Amino acid sequence: MDESIYVGNADPDALAERGWLLGHFMPPGHPRHSTDVEIKWGRHPAGDRRAEWVRGEQRTALLVLISGRFHLEFPRRTVVLGKQGDYVVWGRGVDHSWYAPEEAVVLTVRWPSVPGYAIG
User: Which residue of 22, 23, 85, 93 lies most exposed, with the fewest beta carbons within 10 A?
Assistant: First the structure.
């Protein structure tokens, strides 16, 4: 068996790591360990809202809507993702929050993977 290959499923793997599939917080040497990028599979029930705004973001992020409807909130703008494949990218220093008005699944990619940042 090749230990440099990992095969999984986003739903159960994400549940075990608060949604995260890849990043610096995975065990060193594991194929899912990366200091370059973080990837999250997010399942959000209707009405789910981020507890508090992210301020002073140190990473660039891409969020892609897989299903449902999802709102990304920025200081002067709210972006509504409503069609499968809709996405938004924001850079370092951009404060943000989110809200799921209906059940939604999103894929988030952040880079770099910054040690010391909370997994949440």
Answer: 85
**76 domain residue, yes or no:** yes
Domain coverage including residue 105: 10-111
Other CB atoms within 10 Å distance of the CB of residue 45: 10
Residue 17 near residue 79, CB atoms below 8 Å? no
pLDDT digits (tens, 9 = 90+) for 44-88: 999 999 999 999 888 999 999 999 999 999 999 999 999 999 999
* Any domain includes 2: no
Q: Of the candidates 114, 105, 116, which has an alpha carbon nearest to the alpha carbon of residue 11?
A: 105
38: CATH: 2.60.120.10
The token pair that represents 64 in the structure block: 């892609």
104 assigned to some structural domain: yes
